[in-house]
Amino acid sequence: MAWIKTVKTNESGGLLRSLYDAAIKRAGKVYQIIEAQSLRPKVLRASTQLYLEIVHSSDSALSRAQREMIATTVSKINDCFY
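Structure (tokenized):
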């Protein structure tokens, strides 16, 4: 895995801090996939909004469980541990 610079939770402020706080509220911690986008908080915000719309929205022909299963399968095929 490549090493990139990230902003840790205790070093964050402003928009990034609010996004980290929302991640903690949602998942109990800030996962590395969120930290990987920390240098571009506006991009992180857009990415998170897209993820939430795709996976958590009730406006879909697929159930949330089906969408989660698809995401898990794709991650497994791609050898991604997320």
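The chain has one domain: 9-77. The chain has four helices and no strands.
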